[in-house]
Amino acid sequence: MARPLEQIEAEALQLDENDRARLARRLLLSLEPVAEDPAEIKKAWIEEALRRHAEMESGEVEGIPAEEVFRELRATRR
After folding, report:
1. Rounded to an integer, what distance in angstroms lies between the CA atom of residue 64 and that of residue 38?
2. pTM
3. What is the rounded distance in angstroms from the CA atom of residue 52 to the CA atom of residue 41?
4. pLDDT at 62
5. CA–CA gap between residue 23 and residue 36 (Å, rounded)
6. Three-state SS at 48
7. How far apart are CA 78 and CA 25, in angstroms?
8. pLDDT on residue 34
9. In what helix (H) or strand (E) does residue 38 lie, and over which residues does it extend?
10. How far apart are CA 71 and CA 10, in angstroms?
11. How far is Cα 41 from Cα 16, in angstroms, rounded to an integer?
12. What gap in Å lies between CA 32 and CA 3, rounded to an integer?
């Protein structure tokens, strides 16, 4: 008999940070289709980077300073 999701979540949250990260990565990878050709993945990342750069240059998207992002991240970890 399968354990309830709530029990599995509670147990996973008891893991240390590194083990939780490893588990999260494995779970996410299990949801993604089988990896494509590495060259295709690289091409897709380059296209995405160029698209994001164009959005920033056009003013369509406004960046957030890294120090602000990290400050907010640290505040949520307390």
Report:
1. 30
2. 0.45
3. 17
4. 92
5. 22
6. helix
7. 23
8. 65
9. helix 38-58
10. 28
11. 31
12. 24
Structure tokens at 77: 């970890």
First to last CA, the chain: 37
User: Residue 72 pLDDT > 90, yes or no?
Assistant: yes
Radius of gyration of the chain measured on its C-alpha atoms: 19
Q: What 3-state class would DSSP assign to 60?
A: coil
Q: Is 61 helix (H, G, I), strand (E, B) or coil?
A: coil
pLDDT tens-digit readout, 10-69: 999 999 999 999 999 899 888 877 667 888 889 999 999 999 999 999 999 999 999 999
Count, residues in the chain:
78
**Structure tokens belonging to residue 17:** 């940070």
Task: Name residue, tokens 């590194």.
Answer: 18
Q: Under the phi-then-psi rule, with left for phi > 0, alpha for psi from -120 to 50, and beta for the rest, what region is 34?
A: beta
